[in-house]
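Notes from the 1:1 (GR / supervisor)

We went over the backlog. Supervisor wanted to see one worked example end to end before approving the batch request, so GR pasted a single chain during the call. The sequence is below; no edits were made to it. Supervisor asked that the structure be written out right there so they could see what the output format looks like.
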Amino acid sequence: MAEADWSPQDLISKSQEAKAFSYSPYSKFRVGAALLTTDGTIFTGCNVENACNALGICAERTAISKAVSEGHTAFKAIAVASDMKDQYISPCGGCRQVMREPSILSCNLSGTHRVCLFLQFGLKWDVYSSKPDGSFLKMTVEELLPKSFGPDDMTRKREAPIENNQSAH
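Structure output shown during the call:
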């Protein structure tokens, strides 16, 4: 769904609607997210729990996965909603890292041409943490995850690796 004109309130409303689809039978903690791409497309997501806790997925990562699976990697904003009345819902550490992740250039050879793909998530897009009444706190991904580790760190100069010294006893 493409939205040419949007407001934070519109995005928060969509995140609240997405919360209704939450599958959270264990925690009873419903979360919804609405992700706005730079071309105006909105992707929603909800948390999906699993009896094996590690296999659950957060609302933010659901929305991001849906967007990426449809070719969208440049984001403008995400709104997150829960049922907490006294506190703004904030993305967990894992979601913050996923929000930050790409922002690298990937190049591959395709026949005689080099095909390059810019993955853009990055640090400079907005996160709206909300309450059920629609009030919100706006921060950037960088503010939520300062001094973060990312793809650029994988290409930085490092010490030579220490060899695994496995001597027989």
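Supervisor's comment: The longest strand covers residues 75-82.
Batch request approved.
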